[in-house]
Write a structure and sequence with these properties.
Length: 674
């Protein structure tokens, strides 16, 4: 199994670096053309896979609901009863959220940010006064020390006014300097950098390069140790760095050359954004998130002190992936916020707008869309809240669950936005300014769709998330039987793997035949939701059986069955969501009885999706599509492209760059502090 792809495609990351869609036109800026540097080179598929595999966390020291779910073990006890929070911390966080809401409502003009494509300096300062840049930083370093749950609720609030502000705060804290230092930094690093960030300085995370996306084995930015051992010289170009134009502290991933007595490898550094040799050559512009401060940044002989290495040489990718275990929760927070906003607009519009003698929401075609928006928003919010609560108590490994909610929320929020435009009709396609100009409520629905689209790419595209989660989902199988399908394994390794596999499957396979889900009264305490939980348990065993059969059938070729693996992961996401909504609704049945109705609605819709996904595991056009794609790439059907004017061919799809000093104007932006 692999979590990378060698070709650039729709599955390029917009990962922690905050990458976005590649601009359609031209070079990334002056000084960026020319051949790729030798450091980037070309790596084989095997080498790329080895780099990715070495970066992932291999140990499972804590229980994981998601891992067990994919193995056919429905461990409801890992999420039920619904986790509790600390009332004192809740009260402290709610005070901050109230202040944040008041500031956003009275002082921030989201429409102006969209029109001007710029978050005003005063908004940066206002957020700093509130402590918003230190939400995830511990109080001992001047931060607010919020839980993941309350941090995500703050992002939801901010994103509902301006998604660009949500992205600013998220990239700064979830994947920028604060989170890696919190998990891997030394005491000195925390004391040096975290108070600055909590006070309002902005950070960014720089991994992606012009020709390096989801395949980090080709990383070309280098960090050469200085002769005196005091530090490193950084050289390279980084693309799509969210906050890169305004950040004063950067996490930069660079390759340290291996040498005698030096491990080398991809390493994470804290870099001063104003260090000599750094040039922000371009602020990138995108379809949505117009206020995003996203950069193309060049490093030329930038000195980085040895004390600024995070976690040690060669640990960079592992740090990035580990940071994202909780860092990925910020993106679904904004997706949930978009769902809530969409539900409000859809409900009020569909009740007010009358066509054919009835409010449009009463017509079945629109009623289905309203039901989907409401149920799915409830499902997304519940998955997110559960992941946050599990992360906050730190007793569970949530790497699969966090990845599932990122994948699920980004896909479902996009569908919600699309349905909202359809519900609104022509007014959904019209801009907010145009609506307001003729005296109508300026609901920025078309902007919502533009802003949501990047979430299916940011911080791991849907395609990469499918592969990443699938790799974790089959980890138990590979740990016992991986050598059986490894062409490089010798007879001795294969024999030992055969013995391990025989023992494991002799115990495991019988558990997939029957389970609690077949007992008519199982989960009876959940009342009207019990049947859904029984179905989840049965689905879980069916999913495990299907995965085992596929591994037996395809063996080492399984990693290339990406469409199959994507469906397996999508089934797991739906089962996690169904489990979460049932547990939450049960916990809130007295205070919020309507949530039982929402949970039931969501599960009914989800079961139809799961049934279709199971059918698609074996009845599909995957092999035909792959064969067709080879012919398409070979140009067999190129005549089909005749009759239109296509993009100019004089420029490369990926701009090249060469090491050296920048020849471009520095376009960095510095926010004056109070």
């Amino acid at each position: 199994m692999t979590t990378t792809q060698n070709s650039r495609s729709a599955s390029d990351p917009v990962e922690g670096a905050g990458a976005g869609p590649l601009p359609a036109q031209g070079s990334a800026g002056p000084g960026t053309t020319g051949p790729l540097p030798a450091e980037a080179g070309q790596v084989s598929e095997k080498e790329a896979r080895q780099v990715a595999e070495a970066a992932r966390e291999s140990a499972w020291d804590r229980p994981s609901f998601g891992k067990e779910l994919f193995l056919g073990r429905f461990r409801l006890d890992l999420v039920h009863p619904w986790p509790r929070t600390d009332p004192a911390e809740d009260a402290r966080a709610e005070k901050f959220l109230a202040r944040l809401r008041g500031y956003l409502t009275s002082e921030v003009d989201g429409a102006a940010i969209e029109r001007d494509a710029r978050i005003p300096d005063e908004v940066f300062r206002g957020l700093a006064r509130l402590g918003a840049f230190g939400m995830k930083i511990d109080r001992e370093y001047g931060g607010l020390g919020l839980s993941n749950l309350h941090y995500c609720r703050a992002l939801m609030l901010a994103g509902s006014v301006s998604p660009a502000i949500g992205a600013l705060l998220s990239a700064h804290q979830s994947i920028g300097v604060p989170q890696p230092l919190k998990m891997f930094g030394t005491g000195e690093q925390k004391r040096s950098f975290l108070p600055r960030l909590a006070a309002g300085e902005v950070s960014a995370f720089l991994l992606t390069e012009p020709d390096v996306g989801s395949d980090p084995a080709r990383l070309a930015t280098t960090a050469e140790p200085t002769a005196d051992g005091t530090g490193y010289r950084l050289n390279g170009v980084k693309l799509w760095a969210t906050n890169g134009t305004v950040a004063t502290l950067l996490v930069v991933m660079a390759r340290v050359p291996a040498s005698e007595g030096r491990r080398g490898g991809i390493t994470a550094f804290v870099v001063d954004g104003d260090a000599e040799g750094i040039t922000v050559e371009r602020r990138n512009e995108f379809t949505g998130l117009r206020g995003l401060e996203n950069s193309l940044t060049r490093f030329h002989d930038v000195f980085v002190p040895a004390g600024n290495v995070i976690g040690g040489e060669g640990k960079g990718l592992k740090i990035a992936l580990t940071t994202l275990n909780t860092g990925r929760l910020s993106l679904p927070a904004m997706c949930v916020g978009a769902g809530k906003w969409s539900l409000n607009v859809a409900r009020e519009w569909a009740a007010d707008r009358v066509q054919w003698g009835r409010p449009v929401g009463e017509h079945e075609a629109v009623a289905q869309k309203l039901a989907f928006v409401a149920a799915t928003t409830y499902g997304m919010e519940t998955m997110l809240d559960l992941c946050c609560l599990l992360a906050d108590d730190d007793r569970n490994d949530i790497r699969i669950e966090a990845a599932l909610v990122k994948l699920y929320a980004s896909e479902m929020a996009w569908r919600i936005g699309d349905e909202l435009i359809q519900i609104r009709g022509g007014r959904g396609y019209e801009t907010a300014d145009s609506l307001a100009a003729r005296g109508e409520r300026p609901a920025a629905v078309e902007q919502l769709l533009r802003d949501l689209r990047i979430n299916r790419i940011f911080e791991g595209s849907t395609e990469i998330m499918h592969l990443l989660i699938a790799r974790e989902a089959v980890d138990a199988h590979l740990s016992v039987a991986g050598d059986l399908i490894d062409p490089d394994a010798g007879l001795g390794r294969k024999a030992r793997a055969g013995a391990r596999a025989g023992a494991f499957y002799a115990r495991w396979l019988p558990t997939l035949a029957v389970g609690r889900g077949q007992i008519p009264k199982a989960y009876a305490e959940f009342g009207p939701l019990a049947g859904h939980l029984r179905q989840v348990e049965r689905y879980s065993r069916k999913l495990a059986r299907s995965t085992f059969y596929a591994m037996s059938r395809w063996q080492g070729k399984m990693e290339r069955k990406q469409a199959f693996l994507g469906r397996v992961v999508d089934i797991g996401a739906e089962l996690f969501a169904m489990s979460a909504v049932c547990v939450r609704a049960y916990a809130e049945k007295d205070a919020r009885p309507e949530h039982v109705e929402l949970a039931d609605l969501f599960c009914r819709q989800a079961r139809l999706r799961v049934d279709a996904l199971f059918a698609g595991l074996w009845a599909n056009t995957d092999s035909v599509d792959v064969a067709a794609a080879r012919r398409i790439l070979a140009g067999r059907y190129a005549a089909l492209e005749d009759g239109v004017i296509t993009p100019p061919t004089g420029l490369p799809w990926v701009a090249r760059w060469t090491p050296g000093p920048s020849t471009a104007e520095d376009v960095r932006r510095r926010i004056p502090h109070e």
